[in-house]
Amino acid sequence: MKAFLAPSILSFDMTDIRPSVRTMVENGAEIVHLDVMDGQFVPPITFGDSYVKSLRSTIEALYEAHLMVMTPERQFEPFVNAGCQRVIFHAEATMHSHRLVQTLHGLGVEAGIAINPGTPVEAIYPVLDMVEIVLVMTVNPGWGGQKFIHSALDKVAQVRKIRPDVLIEVDGGIDPSTLPIARSAGANVFVVGSHLAKSPSLAEATKELVDLCG
Ligand code: DX5
Ligand code: ZN
């Protein structure tokens, strides 16, 4: 099964992000992962749709919004209009995950559902056969640079068993040592933030991770 690298821009300099995104895309990253935080679902606040629209207009890739926000449906249209082809919301942030997946499909984009380390796969059973991507958080959401939570991999394997064909994304603490472990468990989309942001050569670090996906 094909695997993808999805760099997160969270740990980069937000005011000068274009050169880094361009380097990662030119070196094989096919997805730009956008960590949207509202200060409610998670304490930090990052950026909104206008920031994404501006970035999207200059660099071609698949843009996915990872909405770490309450009432995520309020952000669906803005982020779709900003050019996101995939929108992922958290199961913990809504009582209406089934309807929200329908809403995203109605907007013509791929729908994803995310679960925190403390949330079991059972919480998303009813929507598992509807979504294009399942995001299993491998850290608690809110910050880059945290340690990979190994126990989350049991949930990756559990999802893979139910949906052999779905995209399974892991997010948090992914680097060249944890990526292969997550891949063996069944994940095939890998979000990487701080490992790339702190690498001495962004091009080389991207290539290394793309090779591990390949
Ligand atoms: C955390 C975000 C992640 C974050 C990952 O809430 O969802 O996408 O940027 O960062 P690293 O790769 O540093 O764990
Ligand atoms: Zn993320």
In percent, how much strand structure appears in the residues?
15-25%
CATH superfamily: Aldolase class I
The major sheet is characterized as:
8 strands, parallel
The low-confidence runs, each spanning 5 or more residues with pLDDT under 50, are none
CATH class: Alpha Beta
How many β-strand runs? 8
* Helical residues, percent: 25-40%
Average pLDDT reading: 98
Small-molecule components bound:
D-xylitol-5-phosphate, zinc ion
Question: What order do the helices and strands come in, and which of them pair?
Answer:
Layout: E1 4-7, H1 18-26, E2 31-37, H2 49-56, E3 62-68, H3 76-81, E4 86-90, H4 97-106, E5 110-115, E6 133-137, H5 152-162, E7 167-171, H6 179-185, E8 189-192, H7 194-197, H8 202-213
Parallel strand pairs: 1-8, 2-3, 3-4, 4-5, 5-6, 6-7, 7-8
The structure holds D-xylitol-5-phosphate and zinc ion.
Key features of this structure:
single chain, eight-stranded parallel beta sheet, alpha/beta, binds zinc ion, binds D-xylitol-5-phosphate, 8 strands, TIM Barrel, 214 residues, 31% helix
What does this protein structure show overall?
The structure is a single chain. The chain is an alpha/beta fold. The chain has a single domain, classed as TIM Barrel, CATH 3.20.20.70. Helices cover 31% and strands 20% of the residues. It contains eight helices and eight strands. The chain has an eight-stranded parallel beta sheet. α4 links the parallel β4 and β5. α1 packs across α8. The model has no long low-confidence stretch (mean pLDDT 98).
